[in-house]
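Lecture notes, unit on protein representations.

Consider one protein chain, 101 amino acids long.
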Amino acid sequence: MELRSFNESKAKLVEDLKLVAEDAEELIRATGGEVAERTRQARERLRTVLEDCKETCAELEEQAEAGLRAADQAIRENPYRSIGVAAGVGFLVGVLLKRRS
């Protein structure tokens, strides 16, 4: 998987997790007036899962940033090698795509 595609997928996952968290928080607020025991238990479970989701989201963002910094540093330290690797990968992808057609 291409680094850009991976980072885009990871960013999409983080965004989706944020939306789920916002929806869950809204649900918790909306059911705040209900006092049924099952509702209270469900809200507590949802709150626990929501906190776990927020932690996972923060960890994913940190990992993505660390990966991008490491890739940037590697490219800056080895620019010619990076260009060579990119050219080689591009050449192989071109050959493989040409063979498929």
